[in-house]
């Protein structure tokens, strides 16, 4: 049992997995100086963040059940934010054993340890749990993934729901935002990089999302924590439903890049890619009503990116 300090409120100890990913590095940027939280970051390699001191980071291979269990018991967190996963749809489709181990087995390892130290869990899931045939999707929509990545996230969600722990499931739409050096590119930073180097790019015009600015993903999680929204599921996304081609055009406009380098193609142009849901866009009603979080238009998110570089904290 965790000791209670009756003299003053205790700082909530949070263990963040996947700390070196896009969500993780941006979560750190907003929380590392907070007096409300004691943040411990876990990933295989240390996040590229200069202000994250050594005592706030632990190296952890979540696939190793014993080491994961031992470390979590030692840290004794109040809350685990489980952001670690393989998010590449194509990698998961072609490496199913690895995808299962990291996206599913690791989740079970965390659940088992969380039960022993009575930690709450926030599980970050994905729009990929939906088929894309009946948009927009709300929190009660039927989940039927069309790719293996989505399947692993669906299994993870179900494990969390059956765990008996206090939990929240947060389905994040495809995110964009600045990433630290060495991180995997996201759709927007990939587009910026290609167009800045005068590369022609082929962008699909028949797969749609309401792309999510990563800062709003972090804000949603913090609202869930601060308002004790346990036993809930939340679909978090941006406002505008766009194809990847329309997204690229918006990026070119905001960053003053050459949109003549952008070519509109059907998804069939890429026959070797894993299947994707054609339109997995979210209904934002619960996000607005319960979390009081209003989804950003794509241009507002891109303008914020343009005016605020990630290197302010890394």
Account of the protein in words:
This protein is an alpha/beta fold and 314 residues long. It has a domain at 12-184 and 212-238 and 282-296: NAD(P)-binding Rossmann-like Domain (Rossmann fold, 3-Layer(aba) Sandwich). 36% of the residues lie in helices and 17% in strands. It is built from ten helices and 13 strands. The protein has helices at residues 22-31, 65-75, 89-94, 96-117, 148-161, 187-196, 214-226, 244-254, 285-289, 298-307, and strands spanning 12-17, 37-43, 57-59, 79-82, 120-126, 167-172, 175-176, 201-204, 208-209, 212-213, 232-236, 242-243, 262-265. Strands 3-2-1-4-5-6-11 form a seven-stranded parallel beta sheet, with helices on both faces. A two-stranded parallel ribbon has the order 7-10. Strands 8-13 form a two-stranded parallel sheet. Residues 3-8 have low confidence and may be disordered.
Set out the fold topology.
Layout: E1 12-17, H1 22-31, E2 37-43, E3 57-59, H2 65-75, E4 79-82, H3 89-94, H4 96-117, E5 120-126, H5 148-161, E6 167-172, E7 175-176, H6 187-196, E8 201-204, E9 208-209, E10 212-213, H7 214-226, E11 232-236, E12 242-243, H8 244-254, E13 262-265, H9 285-289, H10 298-307
Parallel strand pairs: 1-2, 1-4, 2-3, 4-5, 5-6, 6-11, 7-10, 8-13
Antiparallel strand pairs: 9-12
Helix pairs in contact: 1-7, 2-4, 4-5, 6-8, 8-10
């Amino acid at each position: 049992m965790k000791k209670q300090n009756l003299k003053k409120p205790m700082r909530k100890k949070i263990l963040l997995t996947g700390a070196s990913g896009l969500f993780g590095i941006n979560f750190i940027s907003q929380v590392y100086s907070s007096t409300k939280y004691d943040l411990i970051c876990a990933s295989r390699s240390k996040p590229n963040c200069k202000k994250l001191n050594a005592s706030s980071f632990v190296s952890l291979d979540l696939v190793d059940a014993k080491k994961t269990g031992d470390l979590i018991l030692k840290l004794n967190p109040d809350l685990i934010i489980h952001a670690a996963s393989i998010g590449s749809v194509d990698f998961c489709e072609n490496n199913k054993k690895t995808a299962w181990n990291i996206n599913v087995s690791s989740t079970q390892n965390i659940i088992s340890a969380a039960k022993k130290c009575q930690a709450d869990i926030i599980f970050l899931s994905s729009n990929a749990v939906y088929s894309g045939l009946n948009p927009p999707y709300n929190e009660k929509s039927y989940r039927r993934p069309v790719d293996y990545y989505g399947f692993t996230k669906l299994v993870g969600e179900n494990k969390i729901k059956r765990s008996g722990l206090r939990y929240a499931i947060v389905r994040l739409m495809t995110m964009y935002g600045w990433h630290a050096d060495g991180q995997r590119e996201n759709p927007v930073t990939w587009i910026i990089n290609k167009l800045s180097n005068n590369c022609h790019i082929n962008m699909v015009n028949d797969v749609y999302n309401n792309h999510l600015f990563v800062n709003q993903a972090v804000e949603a999680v913090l609202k869930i924590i601060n308002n004790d929204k346990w036993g809930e599921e939340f679909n978090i996304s941006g406002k505008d439903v766009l194809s990847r081609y329309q997204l690229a055009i918006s990026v070119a406009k905001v960053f003053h890049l050459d949109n003549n380098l952008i070519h509109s193609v059907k998804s069939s142009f890429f026959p070797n890619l894993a299947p994707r849901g054609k339109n997995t866009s979210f209904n934002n009603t619960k996000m607005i009503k319960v979390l009081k979080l209003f989804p950003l238009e794509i241009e507002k998110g891109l303008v914020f990116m343009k005016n605020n570089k990630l290197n302010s904290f890394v």
